[in-house]
Amino acid sequence: TLFRSILMPDSDKIQYADKDSYFSKLSVWLTIIATVAVTAFLILLGVTENTEVTQIRQENGYTCVEDYHCQEITDDNAPIGVRKEYTFTLDNNIATDTTLAFYTVHQYVEVWLGEEKVFSIMPSKDNHMIKTVGSNWTMIPVYREDAGKLVRIEITPAYKSFRDRQVDFLIGSELAIYQDRLFKDLAQLILGIMAVFIGVVFVCVAAYNLNKKKREKSLFALGFFSVMMGFWRLTDTRFTPFLLKDKPLLLFYISITMLMLGMIPVMKWIEGYLTQKSRMILNYYCIGAASLCLVQLILQFSGILDIREYLYVTHVVIGVGVFLAIGVVIYERIRYPQKTKIPLGNKISFICLAGILADVTAFYIKGNSSGLMYSLFAFLLSVVFMGISTINNYSEKELQLAEKERQLAEKDRKLAENERKLTDRRIASMMSQIRSHFIFNVLTTISTYCKI
Fold this sequence. Notes:
Layout: H1 2-7, H2 10-47, E1 62-64, E2 69-74, E3 82-89, E4 98-105, E5 107-113, E6 116-121, E7 135-142, E8 150-157, E9 170-172, H3 174-213, H4 218-234, H5 240-243, H6 248-261, H7 263-270, H8 276-302, H9 311-335, H10 344-366, H11 374-451
């Protein structure tokens, strides 16, 4: 850059800037095309059979226990006054060591093999502020000598909404259970990781721009929203508890707190496209949402209120935020009709808000949040739109900058030409003055000598 600025003529600099802008735009679009081609190639490899594998001994899978007895038992010590007891008998022909596995959500678990209690999970005795134990996979090793034993499993729901939740008991290869769950949650895991990665990139770029170039801060909000959404979906899969078996509560509360605070960065992102009055309305909402989150945490720590038990409060806050954002944008369109075009940022935020609202609605329809990815799809679609828009904006700015540099160079050339002409005139004027004075002095000297 220093070499160009010092040694290159102005005309060459303008020509180089035009070429630089052209090749920059070309490289970006070629990268996008190559990425799409690579994605298509990988999808093609994934759906086609390109190899033939012959294997006589197949790895054991798993089966679901169908023949079991379930009864509901009244228990005054249980959080909702009841617990469920499941009983079934293991097969008499267990050839190899295997695993008994089942998934529970906000339910305490105790497992007996014969007369031996082999597993339990419940809140610690000194814990008075949290009812739940989160979402867990119970994995019980079953040995060949356990064949024919009676299995008794007591499951106690922590909340009324989980009283009738169905539990599937799986017996088979632990690895097969892992692989099956990973395959089912793979899309959500990939999208969640992508959202976290994109968010981190956005935050780093925003920090650099804020420190060096003093640009807008909306990219910060978008980055934090992406990170929070990614962690929300990553910690809300059935595969994630396999990775942190000893920290089920951590996963649950990461998920729910990301949900509680997720609308705040969305509002901060949207307000960058609105007028001052509308921004104030969204700021009031952000203050209210953050204050409500703090109150809920204080009540949770004090044991007065359980966040999961009143999850609908968080969903109401999200719904209010969605409709408030839409209403503010509609108000701006009516109040300022001269804005003939809705900014791209508002359009993209609509997509994200629609995805969040769809996830919340589907949660109440399905009864659980497993596999809900509308918000992630909406966000990643928004990122694609923003990327294309950013590329076009940068290309246009580069072309405009090159044109301004060309115009500035032309002005500098004209100014230099005018200065050169003015200097020539000054020199000519000075020379004319020097000549007249010289002749006058010579004649005066001759006259003086003549008199002498």
